[in-house]
Write a structure and sequence with these properties.
Length: 735
């Protein structure tokens, strides 16, 4: 196989350009997505800071509403009496503490003496006695309150209950001496429940960096960073988190500094990367951390990358498409100009006058022979002089208009004379020519002076001869003339009728396909144009085969029958009518349960059978509302049954009796000569089959039977015998 090197080079260059465009598009999309990522990072960080502040203020507000309570308890004389006098019964003080705890919402309220022993508590009535007489001198909130003589905050697991809580303590004074400590224990679990329900990632760490509150349960009691041995010993000594391990919350921490005052911190927690914002919780020494999953930011940036890439690809495709259309138009224009030049060269070299003119009759161009015949000045410009065709030949406007209105697919010749100083008899024909820009007309004109002279001479000779033998041959000439005319009419009629009938169907299909292509060209809509154009070649082949078949139709069919697939033949025939169905709005329904059905026949004759019946159905469906054509195939007892039905109202009984007779037709003059069904009948009989027609009526959803009345043609043809078939093991293969 030989390849054109220049074509390969062009394809390589085109591929390189497309690769460069692809890389540029990806780079632009990457730049946009990275920019969006940075903006989203700053925006998310700003939102995180505001959210952290909201959670911090909410937590501080919750703590502050209990901040006064220990000091208030420490000032109560009744409660202090339990500490002052060891012999005082604890019950009254404990009941009062129980009342205070219930009204304030605190979990437990209790009093400790200077040794750290609980002397009265709100949970004294529990089975285990609650905190009563337990010693918590090891707790920092007790030691610091005594040592610093001030209010203290502390978070730990309960040494007795194991329930974590937040402790607020205040010293109890008597005569300016510290005699004990009042403690309020708060349960902050409801905050963790709220945080968990909000689906946000929040963690609060105490002054030792241990997570004490979190919206995610597995994070609790883990450390922010690696705790020192001193810190761990301190926690164990205070029994702050009994039975808990303090592993590092994050496996890696990364800090980015975009500017001097702008820092971003990332934590890798449980194999997930988070953007972290931190805030100090006032008066407690705690830190609140607000974490956002980094993947959500990356996913948004990835979506932006994909969307921008798609938009840029579409924009590039649109630009390439417009460029391709412009190049195609320019190529077509150059091709058209080249064709016009070639046509003009050909026109100038033939000895027949050729004239191009517009629909209004204005002259466009002529060849040299026409200029000489019509005495047109070679130096004159027809476009500037706007010559009209009736200025060149003797033809009036009404006659000219009537000629243009005629069907000039097969142009007829007309005779007239030129409008030259010495008139010349001429014969002309007009054909319609479709160009890319407009519709023009082509006139061929021939000088018939010699023929006219010979005709005149012949007329004179005939006149003399007729005068001599007029009396003796008058009757013979009359009889012979009538006989010849009749024979010619019969022969011409039979041949013309057959050709017209058998070629009209493919010509109609070609006309529909050409019209569809022309419409797509005018609208610059190429969708489906190749499909319409591809049907022209098979139609041309069909016309050639029809002419060949008609030439030998009167003789015995000596062509060997071959095994053909009836389903494939039906589909091929229907394909030639596709544009006609679309133009006339006919709905097509095909009922077939077989992939192939083999019969022995001439494929062209089977196509003639189908085309004749389908064309008749199309003709009767023209005035039918919601026209429908249904084709059904089935196999039974060695034969295939092909049914073609319409909903055009059925056929009269008087017509059914004669419809297979030659030259019988119900169509208007010029629409048909009654040969189609006669030919169809002969072909079916030749192949040992049968054809029947009947009226059918189907009920619709409305129950109106008349709405679905129509005609049904049923054709029976023998299937290929298994013993004779060498191409397939199955005569009819189900789908």
């Amino acid at each position: 196989m030989r390849y054109d090197i220049s074509v390969i080079d062009k394809r390589i260059d085109g591929m390189r350009i497309r690769i460069k465009q692809f890389i540029i598009i990806l780079l632009l999309a990457l730049i946009c997505s990275v920019t969006f990522y940075v903006i989203q990072l700053f925006y998310t960080s700003s939102i995180n800071n505001r959210s952290s502040l909201i959670y911090e203020q909410s937590l501080v507000a919750s703590i502050n509403q209990y901040e006064y309570l220990p000091s208030l308890i420490a000032e109560d004389d009744v409660l202090r009496q339990v500490i002052i006098d060891p012999n005082t019964n604890y019950l009254n003080a404990s009941e009062k503490l129980k009342f205070i705890a219930k009204r304030s919402g605190a979990e437990v309220v209790y009093l400790m003496d200077k040794s750290g022993t609980v002397k009265a508590t709100s949970n004294h009535d529990e089975i285990s006695g609650g905190f009563l007489y337990h010693n918590y001198s090891f707790r920092p909130y007790f030691n610091r309150a005594l040592a610093e003589n001030s209010r203290q905050f502390y978070y730990a697991k309960g040494a007795t209950t194991g329930i974590p809580g937040f402790f607020i303590s205040s010293p109890i004074l008597h005569n300016n001496q510290t005699i004990g400590v009042a403690v309020v224990k708060l349960n902050l679990s409801h905050w963790e429940e709220k945080w968990a329900n909000s689906a946000e990632n929040i963690a609060v760490a105490d002054e030792n960096g241990i997570v004490i509150l979190s919206s995610i349960e597995p994070w609790r009691y883990r450390s922010i960073g690696d705790p020192t041995k001193t810190t761990l010993d301190k926690i164990n000594l205070q029994q702050q988190f009994i039975g808990s391990e303090h592993t590092n919350l994050y496996s890696k921490s990364v800090n980015f500094s975009f500017s001097q005052n702008n820092h971003k911190t990332f934590w890798l927690v449980d194999k997930k990367l988070y953007l972290v914002s931190s805030l100090n919780v006032s008066e407690t020494g705690w830190n609140l951390y607000y974490l956002v999953n980094h993947s959500s930011i990356v996913n948004d940036a990835l979506i932006i990358f994909i969307v921008i890439s798609i938009l840029l690809f579409l924009a590039q495709l649109n630009i390439n498409n417009k460029k391709h259309i412009a190049e195609s138009k320019n190529k077509n224009r150059i091709l058209q100009e080249k064709r016009q030049e070639e046509l003009q060269t050909m026109m100038d070299n033939i000895h027949i006058g050729v004239i191009l003119f517009s629909k209004s009759g204005e002259l466009i161009s002529t060849n040299e022979y026409a200029k000489h015949l019509l005495c047109i000045d070679n130096n004159a410009n027809p476009k500037s002089n706007t010559l009209h065709i009736n200025q060149l030949i003797d033809i009036t406007d009404p006659d000219f208009d009537s000629i243009l209105l005629q069907d000039i697919a097969s142009p007829a010749y007309h005779e007239t004379t030129t409008n030259t100083p010495k008139p010349i008899p001429v014969m002309f024909a007009i054909s319609k020519v479709n160009t890319l820009e407009k519709q023009v007309y082509l006139m061929t004109i021939v000088n018939i002076s010699r023929r006219k002279m010979a005709e005149n001479q012949l007329i004179e000779i005939n006149s003399e001869l007729e005068n001599i033998i007029e009396n003796r041959t008058k009757e013979l000439q009359s009889t012979q003339k009538k006989l010849n005319q009749k024979n010619k009419a019969i022969a011409l009629g039979n041949m013309a009728a057959t050709i017209v009938h058998e070629l009209s169907q493919p010509l109609t299909a070609m006309k529909s396909s050409i019209a569809a292509i022309d419409a797509k060209m005018k609208n610059s809509d190429w969708n489906g144009a190749n499909e319409s154009a591809s049907r022209l070649a098979p139609l041309n082949e069909k016309m050639h085969n029809v002419i060949k078949l008609l030439k030998f139709f009167s003789y015995q069919d000596n062509e060997a029958h071959i095994n053909i697939d009836l389903i494939e033949t039906i589909n091929r025939t229907l394909d030639t009518f596709k544009d006609v169905f679309k133009e006339k709005g006919i709905s097509l329904t095909i009922n077939n349960d077989y992939s192939n059905i083999l019969i022995s026949a001439n494929p062209l004759k089977i196509d003639l059978i189908l085309s004749n019946i389908i064309q008749n159905a199309i003709d009767v469906l023209e005035k039918t509302k919601n026209p429908l054509l249904t084709i059904t195939t089935s196999c039974s007892k060695g034969s295939v049954l092909l049914s073609i039905e319409d909903n055009a109202g059925g056929i009269d009984n008087s017509v059914k009796e004669k419809m297979f007779n030659p030259y019988f037709t119900t169509k208007k003059v010029g629409k048909g000569l009654g040969l189609g069904l006669a030919i169809t009948y002969e072909i079916v009989q030749e192949y040992g089959g049968s054809i029947e027609v009947e009226n059918i009526t189907k009920e619709t959803q409305t129950g109106n039977k008349d709405e679905q009345r129509g005609a049904q043609f049923t054709i029976s043809l023998p299937l290929v015998d298994n013993k004779e078939s060498t191409h397939s093991h199955n005569i009819a293969t189900p789908l």
